[in-house]
Amino acid sequence: MKKNTNFKSNMITYAMVIAAFAIVQVLRTTGHLSSLMTGLLVPLCVYVILAVSLNLVVGISGELSLGHAGFMCVGAFVGALFTKCTKETITLVPLRFFLAVLLAAAVAAVFGILIGIPVLRLKGDYLAIVTLAFGEIIKNVINVFYIGRDSNGFHISMKDQFSLGMEADGVILLGGPQGINGISKDSSFLFGIILVLITLFIVLNLIDSRDGRAIKAIRDNRIAAESIGISITKYKLMAFTVSAALAGVAGALYSHNLATLQASKFNFNTSILALVFVVLGGIGNIRGSVIAAVLLTALPELLRGLADYRMLIYAIVLIVMMLFNWAPKALEWRERYLGRFFRKSAKEGE
Amino acid sequence: MAVMLEVKNLGISFGGLRAVNNFDIKIEKGQLYGLIGPNGAGKTTVFNLLTGVYRPDTGSVVLDGTNITGKKTIEINKAGIARTFQNIRLFGQLSVLDNVKAGLHNHHSYSALAGIFRLPSYRRVEREMDERAMELLHVFELDEDVNTLASNLPYGKQRKLEIARALATDPKLLLLDEPAAGMNPNETQALMDMIRFVRDHFDMTILLIEHDMRLVSGICEELSVLNFGEILAQGKTADVLNNPQVITAYLGE
């Protein structure tokens, strides 16, 4: 009974993503997609993954994280460095990209654990502020790192590129604030969609399992969860780490879509943007995050023709979405009129 | 008879306040034991000490021969103490079924990877959990509400669900913190029957805090009376309730 409705709801989410992919591909081959929109396809996937991963922490685990851009930053740089180092050795692009994403996820997960252990001892607003601080720290530390490679191997410095002490044949891989240049553009819309589907698969199945139940139980009542033998630390850390790893995946996808990558891109605004997707899509509602991320990333570009009115319309859409998802009357209306389609999945899929 | 819980000289201070002092209690297997006392006497603090929410300053707690003094809540639950709360604490956004399945967490397990990739162990264990949870829900007549969110249940059913969730952890000793709070006389009567049924059906030892004297005198075999953190009287229910000191503590001079 319950299992089936969850299953159905998840299938609708996957079907939506695949349908969107099919439509875009058709539009693309028939030449109906502007170059602007084509350029937006990979970032769309990036933000969808980022939003879904953040929803795991904010919606399912119930902790406000304001530093998700930090994990994305780690993933982006690790992935890009890997690709830059293995450009000659691994020539098969899908394999190289797959390995880069995997490594990015693993390193971001390690950062998730390292940061999660101290941070998750805090609660509520304090946790939010400290995650914000860690996000900024990650960005700023990467901003001063210089990594070079010559015939002797790797050189690392935190001062400047001359302190690397490289031979004449040395190549700078990571140049501090200048970041990484000449990343090979391994990502594509197809890879993006595959990563979105994998992310959804992991998050949706995790939520609907024994561990997900424990995570949600802690969110709903920490003391009661402890009283029935659920380890708070373990499950909070699990949610945080999985989320960090997936943010790392988003980062790797992002960096392989750019020629140059700078740490300054992963600032507070990016974290807040992800949070906006999560809140407007509905906290704890994974499908909502996907829709909100797509809509709010594509919208400013679609409205470019309206010039000055662009941000005004964007703001109005934000407000309308918030009302649609949170206002009691709107929820009532949805239940009544869209109910036929949504009722089963929305009511019991929570 | 075998002793299920033996507490000796239990005590805790909060700042300068000695909240519980020199608390001794001995509960036999299968007993229905009551802990009563005026407001602020320290009853819930005793529960919090027994379940590891607070660490006792002094004394020892032995459950069924195992010393569990000073252990963490999770370990104490695994050792065999489960509880309900005075102000109901359910997992409000989870369904009734999932609340009980959360209680089964430590008894039916599979790895996180098995959960994500839906391996055979996931299907098998989830089915076991469903069956066990449905059994429990059936006992508490909650099988109609399986898919309802816990926060949407009426008050009486929430109390029942909390007990069902506690029993799902397969405890040796069940602590009930004011189970009849906010219930009318009819509901209290039904609750008494249910507590007795739980004791017999699950072979449970039960320690309960209660204010409702009708319930206490109706089902508890022995009582401890707590006043200002210390035991005032202890023994067979009828004797304790006729103790003049107890009457004074409750009703005043």
Would you mind describing this structure in some detail?
The complex is a heterodimer of chains A (350) and B (253). Chain A has 350 residues and is mainly α. Chain A is built from 13 helices and three strands. In chain A, a hairpin with a 2-residue loop joins strand 1 (146-150) and strand 2 (153-157). The two termini of chain A are 14 Å apart. Chain B folds into two domains: 3-90 and 170-251, Rossmann fold; 91-152, no CATH class. The mean pLDDT of chain B is 91. The chains are: A mainly alpha (350), B alpha/beta (253). Chain A binds chain B through residues 1-3, 201-202, 205-206, 209-214, 216-217, 219-221, 223-231, 238, 284, 348, 350, and chain B through 51, 53, 73-74, 77-78, 82-83, 85, 89-95, 97-99, 101-103, 105-106, 108-110, 112, 115-118, 122, 125-126, 129, 146-147, 149, 165-166, 168-169.
Topology:
The complex is a heterodimer of chains A (350) and B (253).
Chain A (H helix, E strand, L loop, with lengths): L1 H28 L5 H26 L7 H18 L7 H27 L4 H20 L2 E5 L2 E5 L13 E5 L13 H19 L2 H11 L1 H6 L4 H24 L12 H14 L4 H17 L7 H17 L1 H21 L2
Antiparallel strand pairs in A: 1-2, 1-3
Chain B lengths: L2 E12 L2 E12 L3 E5 L6 H8 L7 E6 L2 E2 L5 H7 L1 E3 L12 H8 L8 H5 L3 H20 L15 H14 L4 E5 L7 H18 L2 E5 L3 H7 L2 E6 L2 E7 H6 L1 H8 L2
Parallel strand pairs in B: 3-8, 3-9, 6-7, 7-8
Antiparallel strand pairs in B: 1-2, 1-4, 4-5, 9-10
